[in-house]
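Quick question about two entries, pasted in order.
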Amino acid sequence: METQTISISSNELSKHAEGLVNTIKLSKKNNPMHIMDILKELEVKATDTILPPQSAWEQIQENKTAILGTLGNFSLIIGKAKSKKSFFINIAVSAVLKKGILLNQFKGCLPETQGKVIYFDTEQGKHHVQLALKRICRQINEKIPKDLSVYSLRSKKPSERLEIIEHAIYNTPNIGFVVIDGIKDLVTSINDEAEATMIATKLLKWTEEKNIHIVTVLHQNKSDNNARGHIGTELINKAETVLSVTKYEKNKDISIVEPQMCRNIEPEPFAFEINEEGLPVLVENFEKRAETKFNKYDLSQLDDYKIFGLLNEVYSKGESFGYTELLMQLKLAYKKEFKINIGDNRCKELITFCKNRDWLIQEKPKAPYSLGQFNKNLE
């Protein structure tokens, strides 16, 4: 019997071996026992001891402490172009780095083992990024902050920026706080749903695995106050805190920071301006000094018919709403009517206000809300 010899090149042998390895990996990935191991790691039990996340930075006032960001989560700063979002980032970074209270209101809370801060700017050139760095140095009175690294990524492609940021996060010892000023520059299109989901997933992964807080910055649409594109929608849905920065209409030198969505107690709105030294400082007693849209959150300044008009707008969309849906629809109606956002806590006050006047009807606790009758003579 004649023996046949089969010749296999080293390249073909290598490809064959690689195929076997990939087959084994795929088999393991699809193995039900492998998935069960993952489920076991992800399961949350009522008997588990799970501590609340540690604060990264807070707003401190006389009778109230509000968490602005925690380790293991990310926040979103939104605003129109030139609304001074980067100056607000100046406040955030300075507060985290400073030992003590900044501007009599902000406090950094990073653990000593996680005091490192990284600041990525995707829009500005090195000169303007350095100006921002120097402002932080003056704000905290340190010539060279040892725990701060600042990078200008404008010259890189979106994919390169993303790779650089991820590498820095996973390879920087003692990291605790990261700023990405220009999150849209990590994708090629702000309206690409797949890219938006990818970025949000990355932020959730980085913050959880490294137990850090990330602050992201995104422009609002020119035509309204919504964060731009699918990426804006996705980040708002996943962010722990969403803050808006807007210019005060009667004085463009003043910017107002307001909470839009918060998982924790809402911080108090505040205003800041730039002083003679080029540093952001708080505008003291701003609410008392000026009548602004900022103050229209006071229900006593809204006519009853305007409030009921908001309810009519909401119930043009349906006959009844659960509490969460009512809250969302009322916020949308408020923004449509007054061209300004209202926070969750103030919207809840508005619901209670309407319920007490029987403008909102609830048959029993936890039941949906329906629209009542307007009584203009109700005191």
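Here is the second entry:
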Amino acid sequence: MPELQQQSEDSVDGARQTRIRKKKSKFDTASTEAEIFLFDYGTVVIWGMTESQEKRFLSSLKRFEVDKLGMQPW
């Protein structure tokens, strides 16, 4: 029985590694750098940052605001 259990564990580990390999080989979503686009009209687009990093970056931009728009009633 210990052999059967070991084979079962090995096949589970092998399947898990195969899924991980397939996931990484299809689409590499791990970004090593953040991308930030700042547009003249005030829009900021950010990729590759955590939410806390985004908030910290956006708060650092506040000192450059000229005319801040209020909340829009949608």
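Reply: The longest helix spans residues 2-26. The mean pLDDT is 75. Hope that helps.
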